[in-house]
Structures are given as C-alpha cells and as structure tokens.
Design brief:
heterodimer; A: ABC transporter transmembrane region fold; Rossmann fold; 4-stranded antiparallel sheet; 19 helices; disordered N terminus; B: alpha/beta; 2 domains; 6-stranded mixed sheet
Chain lengths: 575, 586
C-alpha cells in the first residue's frame, strides 16, 4: 500500500497524492469505520433479540441499543459522506490549481506540443477520475477490508464449520472479477479513445463552424461523427456484454452462499449445534460480507482509471521547467543582434543561419514570400520559441540572460492573428497590469482608437466577446497594437499588422508612432514596400534564409528578389 | 438571433422529473418492444429472487424445525433451480436494458451533433466554445453514466422493491404495513429534496462549463499571455473559476449524499419495527419464528434496493440537470430555414440586395437599407474603413445570417429559398480567418468538395493544372501529400490563406467572395492568385474585399461601405477620395 517502501516505482502512485491531506483522509476513514461498526452491530442485536425472546429476557435494552445503533449509522454515514465530498473536492481543487500553475509557467512551445486540447482534458476529465477515486474508493477500500475481515470473523465465531464453507465462495467471486476485468481493462482504454475521437470531431465542428456552413460539408462532418459515434456505441456494448455476464454470476454466487447456509445450517440445527437465532444472524452477516466484495471489485475499476489519469497529469508535472530566468534587469538600449540562428520544426528548417544587426532607434522591415519564416523570427525575438542553434542578443547579452519580466516590459509584439480576451477593452489593452493610465491613453491615441472607443456606449469598459466576434479585423489589429504600445516599449515588433488596416489609418498610425515614441526600435514584418522604403534596413527573407539586406536604394539595384517584389507592388498601394 | 445559452438560463424554469423524462421520451420511443421484454426479464428475476426467501422460510418451519434433512435437501434443490433461472433472467435484463441505454445515448449524441450542424454561425459567435464543448462532453458523459450504469440497476431495484413490498404485505398485512411505513416518509422526503439536488447539480455543471471556457480561452491565447508577462492572468482567472466550481461541487456533493444516510436510517427503522412488532405478534401466536426470519430477509430485500435507489437517485438528478443543459441546445431552432420556392422576381443581376438592414443581436444597426446589384461575370470591390460593414455584407451574401429587413436575391430567387447545397455550390466564400484541419494538403483543399472527392485523380490534376493552382501546390514540400497540423505554428497564416483560397476556387462557384482572403500573402504570390482567378470561367462573378489597390483596379465596380451605408465609387480615385473625406471627418 505504501509507495515509499518501493523506491523502484518511478511514477508516484495515487496514495502519494493524498499525503498532504493525511488528517482529512484519516478522519474520513475513522468516520467510515465507526459508521460500519454500527452497521455490523445491527444483525448481532437482531439475533440477540430473537434468542432473548426465546429465553424470556427483557428486550427493552436491546431495542434501545438498536435505536442508538441506527442513529449512529445515520449520523456517521452522513458525516463520512460530507468528509469524502470535502476531501475529494479539495484534492481536485488543489490539483487543478497546481496543474494550472505548472501550465502557466511553461513555455509557449511546450504548451503547443502538449496541445491545449489535452491540457483541457487533464484539467477536467482526468481530475474527475481522481475525484471519483477520493470520493468513492479511498474510504471504501478500508471499509470493505474491515467488513470482510470483521464479517468473516463473526461468521467463524458463530460457527466455524459453516463460516469456512461460506467463505470458500469468496475466492470464486474474486476469480470472476479477475477474469472479466482482465478483458474489460483493454476495452476501457478503447472506450476512452473512442470518446477522445468523438470529442475531437465535435470540437472541430465547433471551431470550423463557419467553414462548414460556407462549403456545406455537413455530410462529411456527419459521416466522421457517425463513425466515431458508432465506434463509441460498439465499445460500450462490448463492455456491457462483459458486465451482463459478470453481475448475474456474482449475484448467483452470493445466493449460492445462502443456499449453503440453508443446507449445512439446517443440518447443524437438526443436530442441535446451532440455534435459530444464530442461523438468522448468519444469514445477515453473509449479506454484509458479500457486499464489500462486490464493492472492491467495482472499485478496482475506479482505481485503474484514476491511476491512468494521474499518470497523464504527472506527465505534465514532470515536463521540464523552462530554462531558468536570467538576471539582467538593466533597461534596454534597443539594439538587437541575431547570430547564426537556425530554427527547426522536426526535420523542416524554418530559419537557416539567419544573422542580423539592428541598431538602437532604427526602423527595420522584414519582407519575403509567404512561409519564409518571418513570423517565426519574431517569435524567436520574444523568446516564445527557443532557436535550435545560434543566439538572439539584446545589447550584446543573450536573451536567456535577461530577467523575462523586465524584458517583456520593454519589448512589445503585435501578433499577426488577432487574440482577444473576454474582458473589458481596458483590460485587453492594458493587458500588462503595470501599464500607467497616461501610457494607456497615449497607446489608444497612437492606434487611432480614440474615436471608436468614444462611440461605444460603455466606452473603454465595454466587454470584448470571446474571440472578439463583435470587432472587425482592423479594429482587432489596432487593439493588438495599442496593447503592445501601452507598455511603452523600447522595441516594437510588428507582424504584418497593417494587413487589415486601411492605408490612411495605417499612415496616421505610423506617423503617430514616430511622433509619440521617437526612440523606439521598430522591427516590422510586412507585405507592403511603399510604407518601408524610408526604413534604415530592409531584410529579404526567403525560405528561412536572409538573401538580401540594406536600404531601399541599395536593394533596388542589387537584389533581383527585391526588385521582383517591388515590381509586383507597383500598383499595390492600398486603400 | 438569440442563441446565447447562458442568457436564457435565468428565465429557464427548472423542469421537474416528469417533464424532463417526457423530453427524453422521443429518444426511447422506438425501443418500446425491447423495453417491454427487458421489463419482463426484470419481473421474472425479481419474482425468483423474492420466492427464494419464502421457500427458505418454508424449509426452516417445516423441515429444519422438525428435523427432516431430506426435505431440506429437496427444497435446496428447488431453490438452486430458481437461482439458476434468476441468473438467466438477470443476464437478459442487464444485456437488453444496457443495449437500450447505449442506443439511446447514440441517438442523443447524434441529435445534438445534427443540431449543432443545423444551427447558424451566430450560435457559435454567441456561445463560448469551451462551454459548448463542456456541454457536449461532460454533460453527455453524466447522462451516459446514468444510462450505461444506473438505468439497469434502477429498474431492477424498483421491481425488487415493489415485489418485496407485496410479499411483506401478503405474509402479514399489519407487520408488512408497519415495516413499510418509514418508506412512505422517505418518498415524501425524496420528492421534497429532489429539486434542490438537481439545482445544485446544475450549478456544478455550469461552473464546470465556465472552467472549461477559461482554459480554452487562455491556452489558445497563450502566446499573448507570455509575451505580455501575464502568466498570472491565466493563474488568477483559473483559480477564480476553479474556486467557484469547488464550492458548487461541494454543495452538489453534499446534496447528492443526503439521500443515502436517510435511506439507511429508514432501513434500520424498518428492521427495528419488524423485531419489536414481530416478537409481539409471535408472543400472541399470530406469527412464527420462521416467518420472522424470512420477514427480516424481505425487509433487507426491500430496503437494500431502496438504498441503491438513493445513490441512483442522485445520479439521476445529475443526469437530469445535464439533460436540461443539453436540451437547451437541442431546443434551439435555426432561423436559417429554407423557404418554399419563391416566385422568380424581375430583379436583374446574379445577386441583388434590396433594402437590406442588418444588426447583430441587441447591437446597433450594422447595415441600413443596402441596395446592391452584382452582375454575372463582373468583378466588384468592396472598400471602406475597418468596422464599416464589409465583412457583414459578405456574410449576408453567403447567407451566414439572414437580413433583419429587406431581401437578397440570387438569380432572381430569394436566397432563403435555395437549399444549403445549392447555395454553397454556387456561392464560394473565403473567410477572413482561414481554418485548417489536421490532414494532408489534398484533404484540406478538397474539404467539403463532394464532387472532386468522388472524381478520380486525373480530374483533380486536370483542374489544378488548368487553373494554375499547381504553382502554389508545388510550394508545399510534399505537394498534395504534405501533412498539415491544425494547431501549431508550423503552417503560417499566409499558407493557411493559400489553402483556403484553393479550397474555394476548386469548387468553381458562380459567385466568389474574397474577404481580405489574401491579406497576409506576399504580393508576388498574390499575382499568381490573380492569374488563377482570371482563369476561372468568364461568367464567374467576383466580390473582393481588400485594402490593396491593384486588386481593386481590375474591378468593374467599386463600392464604398462605411457606417452601414454603401456608396458606389466610380473609380479607385473616387474611392480614395471618399476614404479621405471619411478620415477628415473623424
């Protein structure tokens, strides 16, 4: 039972999870034991009552005891139930909090590789399995063992011959469970997989709802779903078949025990070695004894499920901590050095040997075809992904040497995809809590959001709906920009931010940035050359490699790729 | 247009057991015969289980008491036969009822899924993905637990209990009546407590739904959380919903656990009554000791299933609470019903907007009295400031929503009278946010394209080469067989837009709508896309929403959309002027 005794077990068992709750669990077990001790007492009192009647005793005292015992059962069962609800919920709550702490300290890359969907299952279904274990299994294991031992002792003490004969049924019941559960275990895994698959299909149909309606793929979605649903049904029925066999067999074995009592007990009564009262209580004890055996059998299933869930959760807990935080807290100058950086996704190289130098206060544009690795480069710059090889340095210090908290206060990134939280506009923009009111207002003005916010009935306190459904693409992008500007950054990274903003607003915004944030180092990934022709440096990125860099005037004469892009845009001014 | 599941909940009257069961009935209706057979098996099993103690009592009184062991053996044999018959009946009962449960669950999932498919985009906009997922996963799981584990026991227990009660009364009406008295009190208590228990379970399910939404939102937005140094944001919000769920679950747990101790108390009381009253009756020669022993067994037979019912009752309440949440989805009706064929009107053009108004639920009007006429084979550009209503206009063209007022005609027919299949085949819409499914590039570009999926490979290749799509496909490492992951950063936004573009073009629609569909694609690639579009049949009508001028330059007509109004702009210069004017005003 005690995992500590077995150092070979690498994965901590479920019991280690309960250690911090020792007192509560102990209380739970004590309450359960008291409740069940009372339960065992009842048949004894019944037998005493019947025998006492035959012996002409006064039964009043037995009746009183019976009443007390009943009250005791009621009280302690209720207390036990409250204790186990409390214990299971507190274990679940703490485990969820620990898990969410762990997740929130993970790097972006590891959350992506574990996948948010799996983490959601960890935080809901897996925790539920553990909750079930604490609520139904912990106390029941102790009680069942107690009842089996106690019941067996009482049976044997009343009549050892009869007792031992009846107890010989127990191994048979155990055997039936072992046989069925051996088979059912693989089916349970299959059932879990079937449900996972079903959930995946449902989730995709929710997330892809708009596309499904635009291309009318209801039928193919339904076919996918039908396959998954049929599979789930079939596994369910396979499990059912086994249980449909198991339960009647167990019931029969239990009934068979009462039959043994009738025949053997009857013989002993006829021989005069057993009283009728003893016979009656014997029957009651058998009922008490069989029940915990059944319970143990079914609980073994809860334990197995909880153990599997706990192992999945432990996998998250044991995921490596992100590399230690750096110590540098000095304010940034704004210079960036990228040295021989590679980034691999599996076999595929997203960036190959990229090197760049960016001086403080300069404006740099990164251009290049779709999937050239532009966004990945920005992800590297804020440390969302670690480079596979090479170095990212700010002011000649490696990114990893900086205290992240300080770095994130000085580097603002505007993501390409709109990310909105279901909180107020103010909280969405001043997402970093240390934002000062004046910086917030400056950011809103710079992103040209003032008049939009002024038009809203609740102004800046308007709640943004999940995924920002009520906002247009351009509004979302400007809010994202304001969010990055609100931290008053030293370095601003823009990922194709103007793609959904009209040209005039864009020009205004860029002018605002230049005026309001004059010392800013700006790195802008963009598709539009017109806006960046005056930049200090333009970098042409193709298939993960820097193929040209320099000012517009240089590139237009030296880089064929740049010229190609330039020509493609001769009429690509924007509205 | 009110699809918000969580708004209606306050008005939503808690449905009682019978109305909930009634709502579940359509799922059970086709199983009538099977259920009757299962019930028969249950009755047989219960009768057999009940007869055994009676026979045992007979054996004790008539054979053990007088010392006739031969008679004991004879009756033991008879009882053994009964037990074996009971084994068969119980097997049949569990098997049949269990299969009914699985089939009902199958149908229920099917119905929810079909409902989800039927509901319009507005439904998904108004509800949180996490909450929907929780309703479909966690709530159907609770119903599943009830159906697959509890239902069989429930029916069995009910019969065993009723049978025992009949036996108790038939052996001795007065003693039986007295023994059953506590059960009547139980019935009253149960009926009184049930609504409360269900309510606490509903609350617990709701908090689990918001917990799930919170995780869904935070984890999907994780990069912002990191880049803005707000790991505490996720932590704090999660701890808040977790705490709410914890409190609600404890209350629900205590509510669920209230039944069992009370039922146990009633069982003890029943036994005590039998003991006191039985001994009193024996004293008056109205009862025998053999009957008393079997009576005590019947009391157990009555109260044990009743105790099981107590546990099952809680599981039933939880299932009913979940059922209410699932039913809220099932009960919604899509407002995008297909109208009966409308008479063709004499309005020209392929697609015509006539006095169209639109507003999202409870917000201000997004479009006012819009009139537009898109002619066959022409290219239209929709321009205007962000938030002006361009995407909304495009969504109306594809009938993602119905106009709040006015009509939209496609080929002179009310767009609402076109079947979904017909409409989506003829109107192609490339969404602003591209969606990818995990699978190969081929699977992704053929997604929902029934015609091409069925056609042979050559057909697909022929179309790909004819339209020039091959130049784009060759940019993917393994061509059509390139594996793609739906989540993750390995596929760039621009690539996703390319895929969405091919997906729409392969369908060769009569009307192709591009809603900033190429915003994150570089200008060199964009030229390729323009070429592909130009190779579409000349009758194809194109509607383009974009900021880049070259796409607009080729347009036959330009519409300027701002503040819910549409102005025709003769040329791109005029459009520019309109935009400038708007900007100088604001």
């Amino acid at each position: 039972m005690n995992e500590e005794e077995n150092p070979k077990i690498k994965k901590p068992g479920l019991l280690s999870l309960l250690k911090p709750y020792r007192t509560l669990i102990l209380l739970l077990i004590i309450l359960a034991l008291i409740a069940n001790a009372f339960t065992l007492w009842l048949p004894l009192l019944l037998a005493q009552g019947i025998d006492g009647y035959y012996n002409g005793e006064n039964l009043r005292q037995i009746y009183t005891r019976f009443a007390w015992a009943s009250a005791g059962i009621f009280l302690f069962t209720y207390l036990q139930n409250i204790a186990q609800t409390y214990a299971s919920e507190i274990v679940a709550r703490d485990l969820r909090n620990r898990l969410s702490d762990k997740i929130s300290n993970q790097s972006f890359a590891s959350v992506q590789s574990i996948t948010p969907a799996k983490l959601l299952t960890n935080l809901t279904a897996d925790i539920d399995a553990i909750k079930n274990f604490v609520a139904f299994a912990v106390a029941q294991i102790v009680i069942s063992l107690f009842l089996i031992v106690g019941g067996s002792y009482l049976l044997i003490s009343i009549d050892w011959r009869l007792g031992l004969t009846v107890l010989s049924i127990l191994p048979l019941i155990g055997l039936a469970f072992a046989l069925i559960f051996g088979k059912v275990k693989t089916l349970f895994t299959k059932a879990r997989e079937a449900i996972d698959w079903l959930n995946k299909v449902i989730n995709e149909s929710i997330i892809g709802a708009a596309l499904i309606r635009v291309v009318n793929s209801h039928e193919s979605e339904h076919n996918k779903f039908d396959d998954a649903n049929t599979d789930a049904k079939n596994v369910g029925i396979s499990i059912l078949k086994l249980f449909a066999a198991l339960i009647p067999i167990i019931t029969f074995l239990a009934q068979f025990a009462t039959l043994i009592i009738l025949v053997l007990g009857g013989r002993f009564i006829i021989q005069g070695s057993l009283t009728l009262g003893e016979f009656a209580s014997f029957n009651s004890y058998v009922a008490i004894l069989i029940f915990p055996v059944l319970i143990l059998g079914f609980i073994s299933n809860i334990i197995a499920q909880a153990q599997a869930s706990y192992e999945r959760i432990v996998d998250v807990f044991t995921a490596p901590e992100p590399a230690g935080d750096g110590t540098i807290t000095t304010p940034l100058n704004g210079s960036i050095q990228i040295e021989n950086v590679d980034l691999l996704f599996g076999e595929k190289a997203a960036l190959k040997n990229v090197s760049l130098k960016i001086s403080p206060g300069t404006r740099v544009a990164i251009i290049g075809p779709t999937a050239a690795g532009k966004s990945q480069l920005l992800n590297l710059l804020v440390g969302l992904l670690p480079p596979t090889a090479g170095h990212i340095r700010y002011d000649h210090h490696d990114l990893s040497e900086y205290k992240k908290e300080e770095l994130y206060k000085q580097v603002g990134l505007v993501f390409q995809d709109s990310i909105m939280f279901n909180v107020t506009l103010r909280e969405n923009i001043a997402f970093n809590t240390e934002v000062r009111e004046e910086d917030l207002q400056k950011a809103i003005r710079t992103a040209e959001l003032s008049s939009y916010i002024a038009r809203l009935p609740q102004g800046i306190n308007t709640i943004v709906s999940e995924r920002g459904q009520s906002l247009s693409g351009g509004q979302k992008q400007r809010i994202m920009l304001a969010r990055a500007l609100a931290i008053n950054p030293k370095i601003l990274l823009l990922d194709d931010f103007t793609a959904r903003v009209d040209n005039h607003t864009e020009q205004k915004i860029l002018k605002n940035i230049a005026e309001n944030y004059p010392d800013l180092t700006l790195v802008s990934v963009t598709q539009k050359l017109a806006a960046v022709e005056s930049y200090d440096q333009i970098i042409v990125l193709t298939e993960g490699e820097v193929i040209a860099s320099g000012k517009h005037q240089e590139l237009i004469t030296t880089s064929p790729e740049y010229i190609q892009i330039f020509n493609s845009q001769q009429s690509t001014e924007t509205l | 247009m009110k699809y918000d599941l969580n708004i209606s909940k306050d008005e939503h009257k808690q449905s009682d057991l019978f109305s909930s069961a009634k709502k579940m009935w359509p799922l059970l209706a086709t199983e009538k015969k099977v259920i009757i057979i299962a019930l028969l098996a249950t009755i047989v099993h219960s009768l057999l289980s009940l007869a055994a103690p009676r026979l045992m009592a007979h054996t004790i009184d008539n054979y053990i008491a007088v010392g006739n062991f031969g008679g004991v053996l004879l009756f033991a044999g008879i009882i053994l036969v009964l037990f074996l018959l009971g084994l068969a009946a119980q097997y049949a009962q569990i098997r049949i009822m269990g299969e009914v449960g699985q089939r009902v669950l199958f149908r229920m999932r099917n119905r929810i899924f079909n409902k989800l498919q039927e509901l319009p985009v507005a439904f998904f906009n108004q509800n949180k993905a996490g909450d929907l997922i929780s309703r479909i996963n966690n709530d159907t799981e609770k119903i599943n637990i009830f159906f697959s584990q509890a239902l069989v026991q429930f029916v069995g227990s009910l019969f065993l209990m009723t049978g025992s009660a009949i036996f108790l009364i038939s052996i001795n009406a007065r003693l039986g009546g007295a023994t059953l008295a506590p059960a009547i009190i139980l019935l009253v208590i149960t009926l009184l407590l049930s609504p409360w228990v269900k309510k606490t379970n509903l609350r617990s399910a709701q908090t689990l739904g918001s917990l799930s939404s919170e995780v869904q939102e935070s984890l999907n937005n994780f990069k912002v959380i990191i880049a803005f140094n707000r790991r505490d944001f996720f932590k704090a919000r999660f701890q808040e919903v977790n705490k709410k769920n914890y409190v609600a679950s404890i209350i629900a747990g205590i509510a669920n656990n209230t039944f069992a101790p009370i039922y146990g108390l009633a069982a003890s009381a029943g036994q005590l009554i039998v003991l006191i009253y039985g001994i009193f009756l024996i004293g008056n020669d109205l009862f025998t000791i053999g009957l008393l022993i079997s009576f005590l067994m019947y009391v157990n037979n009555f109260y044990n299933p009743l105790r099981q019912l107590a546990a099952l009752w809680a599981s039933l309440q939880a299932a009913l609470a979940s059922w209410d949440r699932v039913y809220e989805i099932m009960n919604l009706e899509s407002d995008l019903q297909i109208l009966p064929d409308s008479a063709n009107t004499e309005v020209g053009g392929l697609l015509v907007f006539k006095d169209v108004d639109f507003q999202y639920s409870e917000s201000e009007k997004v479009l006012h009295k819009i009139n537009l006429n898109f002619e066959r084979g022409k290219t239209y550009a929709l321009v205007g400031p962000t938030g002006g209503g361009k995407t909304t206009t495009a969504s109306l063209m594809a009938r993602l929503y119905n106009p709040t007022a006015g009509q939209i005609y496609f080929k002179g027919q009310d767009i609402r009278s076109l079947s979904h299949e017909e409409r989506t085949n003829k109107i192609g819409f490339i969404l602003q946010e591209p969606i990818l499914f995990s699978g190969t590039l081929r699977e992704n570009i053929l997604y929902g394209n029934t015609a091409l999926i069925k056609a042979d490979k050559q057909k697909l290749e022929e179309i790909i080469n004819r339209t020039g799509i091959d130049k784009i496909i060759s940019r993917f490492d393994e061509g059509l067989d390139t594996p793609l992951l739906a989540n993750g950063d390995a596929v760039s936004l621009g690539q996703k837009q390319l895929i969405a573009f091919i997906r729409a073009v392969l369908r060769e629609p009569e009307l192709l709508i591009l809603d900033e569909a190429t915003a994150n694609i570089d200008t060199v690639t964009e030229k390729l896309l323009a070429e592909i579009i130009s190779k579409l049949p000349s009758s194809t009508t194109k509607v383009i929403i974009a900021h880049r001028l070259n796409t607009i330059e080729n347009a036959d007509e330009i519409y300027f959309i701002n503040a819910g109004e549409v102005l025709p702009a003769g040329s791109k210069e005029e459009a520019l002027e309109l935009l400038l004017k708007r900007n100088s005003q604001s």
